[in-house]
Design goal:
With about 100 residues, this protein is mainly α. Helices cover about 55% and strands about 0% of the residues. The longest helix has 17 residues, at about 40-60.
Length: about 100
């Protein structure tokens, strides 16, 4: 049987190894530069980068609250911000712009 991650309606994996995080969710230098030049608040940087990487993997925009913590922590490390930072978008205008 095909795993749920490989179906027409992809979802997040149930477990994340360091290898999966590194291969699928590590942003390139250009992506980090784009995020940091677009947004200056760390929680919003995390939201933009999380959205970017999840769209690349799932093919759809995620609800930020449903993104697993291992992905969020990995992206915090990539952005060099505290791991307890939560991705937030302050307004609908910002959400649309992202």
């Amino acid at each position: 049987m095909t795993s749920i991650e490989r179906t027409a309606y992809p979802r997040f994996e149930s477990e994340f190894s360091e290898k999966i995080l590194a291969e699928l969710y590590t942003p390139s230098d250009d992506e980090i530069e784009f995020v940091k030049s677009s947004v200056h608040i760390p929680s919003q940087q995390l939201a933009l980068l999380t959205t970017l990487k999840c769209v690349q993997q799932l093919g759809q925009f995620p609800i930020l609250e449903t993104v697993p913590m291992p992905i969020q922590r990995h992206l915090c490390d990539c952005l060099a911000i505290p791991q307890n930072t939560l991705p937030t978008i302050e307004s609908e205008r910002t959400r649309y712009r992202h």
